[in-house]
Design goal:
- This protein is an alpha/beta fold.
- The protein has a single domain (9-280), classed as 3-Layer(aba) Sandwich (Rossmann fold).
- The chain contains eleven helices and seven strands.
- The protein has helices spanning 19-22, 25-38, 55-64, 79-88, 107-110, 130-140, 163-181, 199-208, 225-231, 235-241, 247-265; strands spanning 45-49, 71-76, 97-101, 115-121, 141-151, 212-224, 269-280.
- A seven-stranded mixed β-sheet has the order 3-2-1-4-5-7-6.
- Helix 2 (25-38) crosses helix 3 (55-64).
- The longest helix is centred in the middle third of the chain and has 19 residues, at 163-181.
- The termini are far apart.
- It binds S-adenosylmethionine.
- S-adenosylmethionine is lined by residues 18, 22, 31, 50-52, 55-56, 76-78, 81, 103-105, 121-123, 126-127.
């Protein structure tokens, strides 16, 4: 039998931030895979774009192994995420990490001098103008520098056999929401579905900006129940699938729904694809 814990009143979690999900081992492996592919190494200056609460920043720092001249610049548009990132990394050598508040689309104005690599985990799908973003990353990199990104929101991220899981999960969570909390999503507040680009569209945008594609691969990840339970504690995810519902009740319904459907389907994992791309500025 599969078990999971979820946020309770007494839990005392920093509620609905990305931090809990970011710490789950399967997710750290997903991002470590991209950082490996980017080949960042000691002595380099690396931007962790959309660093969130600092999970990827830590992985990059491990690769730089305290070498002189190494620097990681974490950039994010969320003040609260950066606050948590600073707390998470307070023991890291302060000379090696700095955090900057700002948008990815303005990267070249946020960073002084050129960098060796820009690592962009799980956020490129959130940026509406990807051509502008690519231009900004391009002009922030030195010649030979790499742009590495991953995303699990692209055309192909949901293996076809998992559609049944998403349908059952949402159906069950909505039923729990109604029966246990007397609530329903507000249809009028439905967030606009984000456009999922194809792999070809992503690589085309990069090539048009002058990048050369060095690596492009799909990492099929077996996401355990814990992953679905933890993502159900993240504000952006909750608001995307249950618009207009108070976060606490929506989160509880999603967590319980995931747990019940895993048990009924008698599965340990649901697969999801992560696209990984590494491009080079010639
Ligand atoms: C799903 S989290 C990913 C965090 C981290 N990169 C990781 O993979 O664990 C997405 C992050 O992107 C940030 N974000 C979204 N749009 C952004 C933008 N246009 N510029 C900078 N950060 C952005 C959000 O604030 C959030 O911290």
């Amino acid at each position: 039998m599969t078990t999971a814990s979820w946020v309770t009143d007494e839990g005392g979690h920093e509620e609905f931030s990305f931090a809990a999900f970011a710490k789950s081992p399967f997710y750290q492996r997903v991002n470590a895979s991209l950082v490996d592919l980017s080949q960042v190494r000691p002595g380099q200056r690396v931007v962790d774009l959309a660093c969130g609460t600092g999970g990827v920043t830590k992985i990059i720092l491990e690769k730089l192994r305290g070498a002189r001249e190494s620097l990681v610049i974490g950039v994010d548009l969320s003040t609260s995420a950066l606050k948590q990132a600073r707390e998470e990394l307070q023991n890291a050598k302060s000379a090696m990490v700095e955090f900057v508040l700002g948008r990815a689309e303005q990267l070249s104005q946020l960073v002084n001098g050129k960098v060796d690599a820009v690592v962009f985990c799980n956020a490129i799908h959130l940026v509406p103008d990807k051509a502008q973003l690519s231009g900004e990353v391009f002009s922030t990199l030195r010649s030979g520098g790499v742009f590495a990104f991953n995303t699990s929101f692209y055309e192909g991220s949901h293996p076809p056999e998992t559609e049944q899981w998403y349908r059952r999960w949402m159906f069950r969570s909505l039923r729990i929401l109604r029966s246990e909390y007397g609530l329903s999503p507000v249809k009028a507040e439905k967030v606009e579905a984000r456009q999922h680009l194809t792999v070809e569209q992503y690589t085309q945008i990069l090539k048009e900006r002058g990048f050369q594609i060095k690596e492009q691969r799909v990492n099929t990840v077996q996401v355990p129940l814990e992953g679905w339970v933890l993502i159900s504690q993240f504000e952006d995810w909750i608001m995307g699938v249950m618009p207009g519902v108070p976060l606490k009740e929506a989160s509880m319904a999603l967590q319980k729904g995931a747990t019940q459907v895993f048990e009924e389907m008698n599965v340990e994992f649901i697969p999801r694809n992560w696209l990984e791309v590494v491009a080079v500025r010639p």
